[in-house]
Amino acid sequence: MDSSGDDLPVSGGPALSFGFNLGRIAGAGEDSDPVLRDGRELGLVAVFDGMGGAGGTVYETPDGPRTGAYLASRVARDVVEQRLVALLDPDWNLDGAATAADLRRSLRTALQERLAELRAPASGLRSRLLRALPTTIAVAALQRRERDGRQWSCHLFWAGDSRVYAFEPGGGACQLTRDDIRDSGDAMANLREDSVVSNAVSADTDFVVHHRRTELTAPFLVMAATDGCFGYVPSPMHFEHLVLASLRDSHDTDGWSAAVQARIGAVTGDDASMAVLGIGADHDTFRALFAPRTAELERRWITPLDGLDADVREQERKLEELREARRKRRAQLWAAYKPGYERHLAPPTTEGTP
Q1: Sheet of 2-3, strand order
Q2: Residue 124 in contact with residue 130, Cβ under 8 Å?
Q3: Using an 8 Å Cβ cutoff, are 103 and 88 in contact?
Q4: Which end of the chain is more exposed for a tag (fewer CB within 10 A), N or C?
């Protein structure tokens, strides 16, 4: 799926936007389609990752068997889009704390109602790891501070380990949401540890919808992404480079989206969905603005890290060659030594046998 932004009910204006949902199994991906809305004074991006492990229970639906994770992400998408389109106000007075409480209440009610509709029998299996209709959410709601101004308020709402990022020409990518995971490692450590999600939206357990607000100055990019996008690269630097190198190598926004999808699809082991909104510049201008940052990424981080990885692979190849040579030589030497070593181990003769 690849979608462009739909206008919010405000005066229109130019905006760069794209979104996609890459499912590993066609028609059964547990990420929902992202939310992507843009207008002259407002913007909204959001992603939803149904949690396949915790929500692996399969329910019978009119559309066929569906996992709880699949159903949860789609219920959550509909609720978040409906509530935030209603609550976003072009007069720049979104109450973040009240909105977070509204989302929590609305999500819980909708998921409980959907679970009741499914009429699933109560499970005899009890596990802290099982959830009814579990999903992550990661949302960025943008409001311009003054009409036609460059300052934007970015309200962030999330539960789970999906993320919102900002990309700023002067400083590159920065993570705006904090992963809800049991281990307290940073983004690099999380790539290695694959920690358990500690807080997520669901129908049968309590959860928190976090809120924080940050200020951004146009031009900038804001992105919401599930972990299938960023969880299978060697480092956070590589994820930023994946996004910006795809921008550099594209001629228009559709080409940028296609390049990002191709690069993610080549490495990911999960469903992957993303929504990107650019404020304050068109595609060609963003390409020019981020060109220095892309070059810096390659010079300072990507080339050194990739060089070290190549060295490790080469040493591992040589080590494997040595191991194979050792195996063969050991077999040869044993074959030469074995006759003498086993000279008194000839098969015994049966008494009376000549």
Answers
A1: 2-3, 16-22, 272-279, 220-225, 163-168, 172-175
A2: no
A3: no
A4: C
* Euclidean distance between the first and the last CA atom of the chain, given in angstroms as a whole number: 84
- pLDDT, position 229: 98
Pairing of strands 172-175, 16-22: unpaired
Regions of the chain with pLDDT less than 50? 1-14, 124-126
Q: Which two tokens stand for residue 293?
A: 């940052």
The Cα–Cα gap between 97 and 176 comes to 17
Rounded Cα–Cα distance for residues 200 and 168 (Å) = 29
The answer to whether 67 touches 52, Cβ cutoff 8 Å, is yes
Q: What six digits make up the tokens of 333? A: 């030497």
pLDDT of residue 354: 52
Residues 235, 186 contacting (CB under 8 angstroms): no
Residue 106: which residues within 8 A CB-CB, separation 6 or more?
79, 83
Measured distance CA(49)–CA(18) in Å, rounded: 18
Distance CA 39, CA 279 (A): 10
- Beta pairing class for 16-22 and 272-279: antiparallel
Listing DSSP states for 68-128 in one string gives: HHHHHHHHHHHHHHHHHHHH--TTS---HHHHHHHHHHHHHHHHHHHHHHHTPPPPS---T
Peptide bond into 236 cis (omega under 30): no
Cβ neighbours of residue 179 under 8 Å, at least 6 residues apart? 160, 161, 163, 187, 190
**Structure token digits, residue 338:** 């074995």
d(CA 300, CA 12) in angstroms, rounded, equals: 40
Using alpha carbons only, how large is the chain's radius of gyration in Å? 27
Specify the pLDDT at position 151.
94
What confidence score (pLDDT) does residue 131 get? Answer: 78
- Give the pLDDT confidence score for residue 147 in this predicted structure: 81
The pLDDT score that the predictor gives to residue 126 is 47
Q: Which fold has domain 2-306?
A: Phosphatase 2c; domain 1 (3.60.40)
